[in-house]
Design goal:
The complex is a heterodimer of chains A (454) and B (436).
Chain A (H helix, E strand, L loop, with lengths): L1 H12 L19 E2 L19 H12 L18 E2 L4 H4 L19 E10 L5 E2 L11 E2 L8 E12 L5 E12 L11 E6 L6 H5 L3 H13 L7 E5 L4 E5 L10 H13 L16 H5 L10 H13 L2 E2 L7 H12 L10 E2 L12 E2 L7 E3 L17 E3 L9 H5 L13 H7 L5 H9 L2 H13 L1
Helix pairs in contact in A: 1-8, 2-8, 6-8, 9-13
Chain B lengths: L1 H14 L11 E6 L3 H14 L4 E6 L2 H9 L8 E4 L2 H9 L3 E2 L10 E2 L2 E2 L7 E7 L1 E5 L1 H6 L20 E4 L7 H12 L1 H13 L1 E4 L6 H6 L5 E5 H9 L5 E3 L7 E8 L5 H12 L1 H6 L28 H4 L6 H6 L1 H11 L4 H21 L2 H14 L6 H4 L2 H5 L1 H28 L3 H8 L1
Parallel strand pairs in B: 1-2, 1-3, 9-10, 9-11
Antiparallel strand pairs in B: 3-13, 4-13, 5-6, 7-13, 8-11, 8-12
Helix pairs in contact in B: 6-7, 7-15, 14-19, 15-16, 15-19, 15-20, 16-19
The chains are: A alpha+beta (454), B alpha/beta (436).
Chain lengths: 454, 436
């Protein structure tokens, strides 16, 4: 069953070949870079995407944006939502393919983030142990007649951080509170981790970074004392432990696994990879609810949804000729940020040849790092400890506010500015944070302007 | 030990039977077919304006919504918010809708056309219109401009550059063609449609949007409902949008189900949707629809179109009930005249354009006359205006399509047979010049 989805994906890529593309070395996504700073900059097909795959790309986009329907329904191709879910479409969390945000006040619901749950211990493959009544994430929505699992609200604890030159920055830390829990108390030892939706462009290029490169990066990171290491996770499509590279804790090995898991966990839509509805044993109405098929999402439709994510272009960097940006880039390097936010990677082979052999500038090493107690969620995920987070890519970060109307950084969206995000860095990244704190204001401002140019 | 504790709790829950369905106070269940971006914007704004009240969305396309709403209790739906005038009329006729609050600031008509139910069981919530999305830079490169009228679409310079939606496949298109048929008259309307179609590439959904293709320069002119193009432009797409000479308006509606489990919250949602604040959300770059509250136009960029401007609304006069009744027939006629024989239609159109150009160049009255007859044959419609509203024809339009096709083919092939020898006698340089 699991190989069918992989075969469908491979079939999409087969039957054609792409000639070498002219590449601008400074282009953020190699030949998959677009000079686009509009509100659609995270949603454009790679210019290198072969014409034969454009219709599949747009079909994948339609499925990514599709609001799914409760079964039974006439529109069978898009039915199967729930029985319990978080949001009814991929695009609901990944609005315009950008990042999600955390609610600013407790009355506001989580519309572009979710809360991961587990209990102490590990599952058969070393992953998190799902909560017996609520599973591995809180589904705060449900089909009519079925109880949603509950609601999670965020309240903020704020404190002021004063930099050596007297500049003050307000930092906030989320506290998650649960209400309307439909299946009993969560228990005092429940492990809770709120996560905003990450951006979804350029993912094919990240998928194409060779595992050997990640191992080299990890060795280099260890040698530098930056602690970078690989997560190794269970991949249900290969039925093996493999290197993880997607997700806030690098807990997903491939876009296939990541996408199929999100279809099930976030929307309640089954696939050949995850054929069972996400109802726990106590959720009787959920288990008895009608299904739209076995599975609800065909392998062909899963494949085009993945192809879409693999093939979205990366917006070109802007303002690189601006002296202040150049100064900020130097400050970024001198503070050691580039030790983890690695500026350049070379992609290897990929079933989509246009993603191969590309010099890309994602500003990530795709590795786990200890980020300190302040950011810890104390929820281990395979080899990732409660203090570990994967270095998130920074490409396109400067367009986020224009596209999504907000700035929200770090895994739970607590940081409202680049400065806040940097000041939360600790653990392996503590020295870089201290270097930022110690910079003169002109250098700090330049560094922030550099980030805005990405 | 901790796991054992959880298992005990799990066992207790299982023994106690089904888990309690602890539903929140303050929720409103809205059935809609709007895209996610529209839903998300209204959801966030409504919940911000009404703290403690949660908007819950049930999504269904109009054809799927109707049986769902007709089930006993309508599955707990409070509000129906969608673009499907026919569904609202049917729900009202079945007495399944609750009356809405009166609001004198919300017009019930555009011109002579009622957009809201006079009995206030459903109200217009937004308006859309139709026009042409243009890739100006590509047109300019060939010394063309964006067409200004429907008749412009038939001009030889636009041949192969226009993307035209097929009404049996594209949800917004039936009303757009019906507006033409009612405003221009049945035969004249079909003439404009057939001549435009002969110059066009046909669009059916499935991959790229009309705006994707125009933005990418695959075609240069996209015939579309306005908000797709206006939203794409607002988000940075390299194109322009023109409202042509003949336009009409397509309202979407909102209603509260008589069986609504949360009537107070439902009224609050409808009130918010129609408020100045709610109507201004329609101007967001991701939506770009036209408000139904005239005062909202002062604060939004409506792209130069205010349906409540008497100069525009005076021209707005069509029979929506008749349009709904013959929608399937018009779709079937479009397929019979255009979609099912598009290659032949284009071939005949090109022959006509050559013949007309040559006739003018040479002052050849016989050729001009033959071209005129061929043009009539090209846009000949097998059903009269009177027949188009006959109840019988609505039911078996599909069955008649084969017979219509035979008649259409016979006339068009006859026209081509008359033109071919006249064109074949023309010397090649003259023909090439005429083609240009």
């Amino acid at each position: 069953m699991t190989s069918r989805a992989r075969v469908a994906l491979a079939a999409l890529c087969a039957g054609w070949a792409l000639g070498a593309m002219a590449e601008a070395p400074s282009a953020a996504g190699g030949s998959s870079t677009i000079p686009d700073a509009t509100r659609e900059a995270f949603a454009q097909p790679s210019p290198a995407l072969p014409r034969q795959l454009r219709e599949s790309f747009f079909l994948g986009r339609s499925l990514f944006r599709q609001v799914w329907v409760v079964a039974p329904a006439m529109d069978r191709d898009v039915s199967g939502l729930g029985p319990i879910f978080n949001r009814p479409s991929c695009a609901a969390c990944h609005l315009k393919n950008g990042r999600g945000r955390a609610p600013d006040h407790p009355a506001e619901k989580m519309s572009t983030m979710l809360v991961r749950l587990s209990i102490p211990g590990i599952d058969a493959h070393g992953g998190p142990l799902p909560h017996p009544a609520y599973g591995d994430q809180l589904n705060d929505s449900a089909n009519p007649g079925i109880a949603a699992e509950g609601q999670a609200r965020i309240t903020w604890q704020e404190h002021l951080e004063t930099l050596p030159d007297g500049e003050r920055v307000s930092l906030r830390r989320p506290l998650v509170r649960f209400s309307e829990l439909a299946y009993g108390p969560l228990g005092e030892d429940v492990l809770v981790s709120p996560r905003i939706a990450p951006p979804v462009f350029g993912l094919g290029l990240l998928e194409a970074v060779p595992e050997s490169t990640l191992q080299e990066l990890a060795a280099h990171s260890q040698a530098l004392g930056l602690g970078g290491r690989l997560n190794r996770v269970w991949d249900p499509s290969r039925r093996a432990m493999v290197v993880g590279r997607f997700g806030w804790k690098a807990n997903s090995a491939s876009l296939l696994t990541q996408t199929a898991a999100a279809f099930l966990g976030d929307l309640g839509i089954t696939s050949s990879l995850f054929p069972d509805e996400n109802c726990t044993m106590v959720q009787a109405a959920c288990s008895a609810a009608p299904s739209a098929g076995a599975p609800e999402l065909s392998d062909a439709r899963l494949a085009v949804t993945i192809l879409y994510q693999q093939s979205i272009a990366v917006p070109a960097r802007r303002d690189s000729g601006n002296p202040k940006v150049a100064r900020g880039e130097r400050a970024f390097a001198s503070a050691g940020c580039v030790g983890c936010h690695v500026p350049e990677l070379l992609t290897g082979g990929h079933p989509l040849p246009f993603l191969s052999g590309q010099h890309i500038h994602p500003y990530t090493d795709l590795l786990l790092h200890d980020m300190g107690e302040g950011l810890a969620d104390h929820r281990p995920d395979f080899l990732a400890s409660g203090r570990d987070w994967r270095t998130p890519p920074l490409w396109g970060i400067g367009l986020g506010e224009h596209i999504n109307g907000h700035r929200a950084f770090l895994h739970d969206g607590r940081a409202r500015t680049y400065a806040e995000a940097i000041l939360w860095h600790d653990g392996d990244a503590g020295p870089s944070r201290e270097a930022f704190r110690a910079m003169g204001k002109a250098d700090r401002d330049a560094l922030l302007e550099f980030l805005d140019s990405l | 030990m901790r796991v054992a504790g959880h298992l005990k709790a799990l066992l207790a829950l299982l023994l106690a039977g089904a888990a309690s369905a602890g539903m929140a106070e303050g929720r409103v269940v809205v059935l809609t077919s709007y895209p996610q971006e529209t839903i998300s914007l209204f959801e966030a704004a409504f919940e911000k304006a009404n703290p403690g009240t949660r908007l819950e969305i049930v999504w269904r396309m109009p054809r799927d919504a109707m049986p769902y709403l007709l089930d006993a209790g309508s599955h707990g739906v409070d509000v129906y918010w969608s673009a499907s005038a026919r569904n609202y009329a049917e729900l009202a006729a079945k007495d399944l809708l609750a009356p809405l609050a009166a609001d004198p600031a919300l017009p019930e008509r555009i011109g002579r056309f009622p957009i809201s139910d006079p009995g206030l069981r459903y109200r217009a919530s937004e308006i859309a219109s139709y026009g042409f999305a243009c890739n100006e830079s590509k047109l300019r490169a060939d010394r063309l401009t964006c067409p200004a009228t429907w008749a412009d679409l038939a001009k030889p310079g636009y041949a192969g550059r226009i993307l035209l939606p097929v009404p049996s496949k594209v949800g917004f298109a039936p009303l757009m063609y019906e507006i033409l048929l009612q405003k221009l008259g049945w035969e004249a309307g079909w003439k404009v449609i057939a001549e435009a179609a002969a110059n066009s590439v046909l669009f059916v959904p499935g991959g790229a949007f009309i705006t994707d293709r125009i933005g990418a320069g695959e075609e240069d002119v996209g015939v579309t409902i306005d908000f797709f193009a206006k939203s794409a432009i607002a988000n940075g797409a390299p194109m322009t949008f023109v409202y042509p000479d003949v336009i009409g308006f397509s309202p979407a509606h909102v209603a509260i189900l008589a069986s609504a489990p949360h009537p107070d919250e439902a009224h609050r949602y409808v009130e918010f949707l129609l408020s100045e604040e709610g109507q201004r959300i329609l101007a967001h770059p991701d939506i770009r629809k036209l408000p139904v509250r005239p005062s909202a136009y002062a604060a939004v960029d409506a792209g130069g179109l205010n349906p409540f401007d008497p100069a525009r609304s005076a021209a707005f006069d069509y029979d929506m009930a008749a349009a709904q009744k013959r929608q399937a027939l018009v779709n079937a006629l479009f397929d019979a005249m255009v979609s099912d024989r598009h290659a032949g239609l284009r071939e005949l159109s090109q022959a006509i354009q050559q013949a007309e150009a040559l006739a003018q160049q040479r002052g050849d009255a016989n050729l001009a006359s033959a071209a005129g007859r061929a043009r009539s044959a090209m846009s000949w419609v097998p059903v009269s205006a009177m027949e188009s509203i006959a109840p019988d024809l609505q039911k078996n339009a599909g069955e008649r399509a084969v017979a219509w096709g035979r008649e259409i083919d016979a006339r068009r092939e006859g026209a081509l047979a008359e033109l071919r020898p006249l064109l074949s006698r023309t010397d090649p340089p003259a023909l090439a010049q005429a083609r240009r």
